[in-house]
Here is the input.
Amino acid sequence: MKKITLILLALSLPFAVLAFDFAKPSEPSGKVVLSDYSEASQLYQVKLVEVNGENVPVRAHAVWLKPGQYELTLSAQIGKMAKSNLSIRDRKGLDDRENKLTLTVEAGKTYYLAYDARPKEHDDWKPIVYKVE
Here is the structure.
């Protein structure tokens, strides 16, 4: 039993060291919402991949960040309707497309992120902050 525990600890340690240090909701922080989107408005869900170049564990809905400036790497979760308007060549790799967004976080504010697929040229699609409360 001790060997299994030691192996599991050894395997998880590198991930614990590499994990980004998110703020807790009780600390002075800003909330970044990842899953509030509207496919009808061609605003799609984003998945947080990195913060300031550091890989992050998958987050389903929201994260809290301490006040400051961040470079977020986001992956687009494009819906079938938007993909159906693209050629096969343009669709290739769209799910794997990652984009950077610079975000200045203030304590007590909530930032709603989405992937904006409204521009006619799909190369102009990008993650945006579409609402701040």
Q: What stands out?
A: The beta strands are 30-33, 43-51, 54-55, 62-65, 68-77, 98-105, 110-116, 126-132. Residues 2-18 form the longest helix (17 residues). The longest strand covers residues 68-77.
